[in-house]
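Annotated sample (chain length 394).
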Amino acid sequence: MANFYRSLLVLFSWCLLSPAVFSQPGERRPGAQPTNLYRVTRDSISRPSRVGFIDKTGRLVIGFDQLPGTTVSVGDFYEGRARICVSQADDHTNNCIVGFIDETGKVVIGPSFERARDFSEGLAYVEGKGQRGFINREGKLVIRVDQVTDDVIQASDFHEGRAATLAKNGKWGYIDRRGNLAIKPKYSFVSEFSEGLAGVVVDRLFGFIDQRGEMVIPPRFKPQRGQYTWDGIVGTSRFSEGLACVREGELFGYINKRGEFVIPPQFYNAQDFSEGLAWVVSADYKEIGWIDKLGRWAINAVNRHNLSPSQPGAYSRFTSFPMIFSEGLAPFAALVRPGYPGHYFRWGYMDHKGREIIKPRFAYIYPFDGGLAWVTSDEASGYIDKGGQFVWKK
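Output written by the structure step:
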């Protein structure tokens, strides 16, 4: 579904808790504050890649040999803390425990958790030593989810003062920052709160609730589906800049917080609004680009900045890719070998007017974050600045 990237897929949380599975460079959590440090690696033949961090100029701030020698993997920084997974043996296996480092590279929360999530709103969910709950930035356990109710067995991140919790009966609800049960677990799927509302699934359709648990937009929309849950539901939708992208029938449109369509369902594919624009594909595949909040085409130079309308099958490549504006720039794809097997194209960045700012020469790219973006070209991978120049590459 269109806004896959922008949604926090809560039922993935168990997988995301795995101590050795961290995101790739550049793949940061949506909505997080821009980072000050960027994760980089130095490959090694005899042992796992060593991890370090650079600043916005490309200067190495946390050296490759600064972290513990038994480090298996390291995550990105969120709120001044980054997860670090340290092996419990000298063989550098994935049998590791998780702690946190600060922005100097110092281990400030000792590795002792079996699983942990990144910090969000000052708290991080952890599991280990028979405890399940949230720690603060000093590592103190301040919320025990198993003491909220006997039913709670798992939790997700805090967003707007609410964290989703999973009960033994397979239903989801929310707790508040005091650890109190704020919304009883009764939904088969939930997403994080965004702009005061959260998507919840009831009888295989989703609507939106407010932070009191009141249903403000009744369930009538089709949820996102995939292969990760027993019933195939992997996501709902979220409000971004006052609008939510939803599907009615087989087409996407945008609703306001009263549940009214302000942009009628008319798109084959669509994504969330960012910086006033949203990426869409028309139902007949003839137009692809960005619309404004009135539903008017703002950028639809198909042949300049996207795949040809004669190749609708290639649109599947964009389904989960963040075609969003970030720090004034958005990705675009240009065919470099029309008709070539696999739709051979390269990525670049454009501005709000559709003007090419960074030429399409990359095999893969991510949104800009704090002035840098992770890209992969045929020759190298690394971080570029807004001039398209590498500040660090490997």
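Annotation: The longest strand covers residues 261-274.
Annotation: The domain at 140-239 is CATH 2.40.128 (Lipocalin).
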